[in-house]
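tool=predict chain=A
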Amino acid sequence: MAQPPSKRPPAKGTPSKRPASGKPAPRTAASKPVRLKWDKPRKPKPQRDDAQSKGALERKDGEERIAKLLARAGVASRREIERMIADGRITLNGEKVETPATLLKSLHGVAVDGQPVKQPEPTKLYLFHKPANCLTAERDFSGRKTIYDILPKDLPRLMPIGRLDLNTEGLLLLTNDGEFKRQMELPTTGIERTYRARAFGDVSQAELEELIHGIEIEGVRYSKIDANLERRTGRNQWIELTLTEGKNREVRRVLEHFGLEVSRLIRTRYGPFELADMPAGAVHEIRRVDLINFRNTLKA
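tool=predict ok
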């Protein structure tokens, strides 16, 4: 009498038998796949403290690139520092620095044009009401007036965050920290800027609302712009525009695309900071606690 087939699983190491058809036996719910060494679950990466990395004004004691340290010390922007290194203007203990990637814990022994560099001061932020007819530049070889001809002489060395054209007036942010300046200018940071433009010509609110989808002008793509027609007197109107990129002459080029002639352009807001009733040429320092709170809100 034939014995019924055994239900015991094959011994460990014994290959399992296949049915006569040659096809592998179907996997049952109780069967488990063999776990390979590279199938082990990965340990989650530790999450960095974004609030600290984005908002802390004092760095921990550790090595950083010399270009970043010099930018934070207010020597110049990181890109300009890279050019200064290429020109041999920056030295470390009397030797020319060869690369902006040189790692340092401090600026001790670093000199620019032979002058020792001071250690970075705490980051500062100033609001400045830039008048029209002055350049956002340190100097102008043609003799035109710059913002540094207007700023009080007792201020620390400050760099503008972004620029305003010669004839554009309004809110300009200034800082002594080149790394903070760079962060504020990056389009990925997504900081809103608001402008008010007085323009001559014909445009409708419906046309302005199309800018919310962005627009391409002469091969240049501009991201979304929230534009609103404030008031109109004849063919003159005031238009408010809020954008996040701030490309070169962006507002003027977009309005000129609609056939408008801009006669006055004022920046009224940069992020949470507003021009309000600041008189032209006035400077106001942001409190340190407000600056820290603002930096904690910035994107990485």
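The chain is about 15% helix and 25% strand. The chain has a mean pLDDT of 82.
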